[in-house]
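FIELD: query
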Amino acid sequence: MIGIALGVAALIVVLSVMNGFQKEVRDRMLSVLPHIEIFAASGDRGAALRDWQRLTQLAQQNKAVLAGAPYVSAQAMLARDQVLRGAQVRGIDPAAEAAISEVGRQVRRGSIESLTSGSYHIVLGFALAQNLGVGLNDPVLMMAPQGSVSPAGFTPRMRQFTVSGIFESGHFEYDSSMVFVHVDDAARVFRESGQGGVRLRIQDMQQAPQVARQLADSLPPGLVVSDWSQNNRTWFAAVQTEKRMMFLILVLIIAVAAFNLLSSLVMAVNDKQSDIAILRSLGATPREIARIFVVQGGLIGVIGTLLGVGGGMLIAYNIDVIVPAIERALGFQFLPKDIYLISQLPSDPRRADILIIGMTSLVLSFLATLYPSWRASRLQPAEVLRHD
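FIELD: result
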């Protein structure tokens, strides 16, 4: 019973922590990334950008869409002295961006409002600014992949920007590679090499795939509608695979406990052979004998599962209190702030996971009772009592 309870509790706690990490990283990603993007499929890449207000109005006919903002997306190289770094450039309109992302609230130095048309200001991620060795008001040279060909060779398009802000999203990939400029400045620098369109924010980010399909059917032809799950498919697929494998590994703990239950019932059958024989001689049927051991094993499984579910939920819902208490007692920090992006263990218990874990435990416990109960029902009273 204790083995089943420990296995169930461990499985609930581990999956809750994995869900918490996934939710934390996803929320930090979506604080920078849009829920849905709309851009031209081919041809004039700036068509969707020039008509972004009308596209936003059409998209907002869907009640799930809250707001929209224009954007330009492109790859570029940033240079400062002898340091060269690749960057993902996002051209945004600061006035409209506040309604669809949290970038403005993530700026630690400077301001996102400093991005005005024609100013050629730039807001960098914290890690990227450190790599380039720049601070506020420092110049940065941006080189676009598109350039001009002359007798002297290929010359990339370059433009000097001034650092007017540094943001920190808490996600290293974006803090080390993403920069923001005004949408008009990005359109001038990248021209045909950049991709322009509209970014949308919806009420429920989990409904983004369904809303994207609805918008694709309702918007004019020639536009592509993509959601955040499509743009980050590889990462989320890896997380889901890891979660499934962890579930299978930890189910082995419950399986071991169920095997112990099977062993204990087999030993009980061996010890109670004479008692079973007496019951049979008094008129008990094989089915009634089997039912005794099924009920015994079932009660052990049910009580163990209930204890495990209760203990696991208690730990999962209070892990933000339990872990700091253990860290203070041991004088050791599980997630140092200078190494990990997240300094506290997040937890997100889900009813579906808890239900699946509980049902799995009950099924394994029930299966463990089948062989001992069948063996007990097959005992012959005459043979057992003769040797007794």
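FIELD: remark
The CA atoms of residues 19 and 348 lie 5 Å apart.
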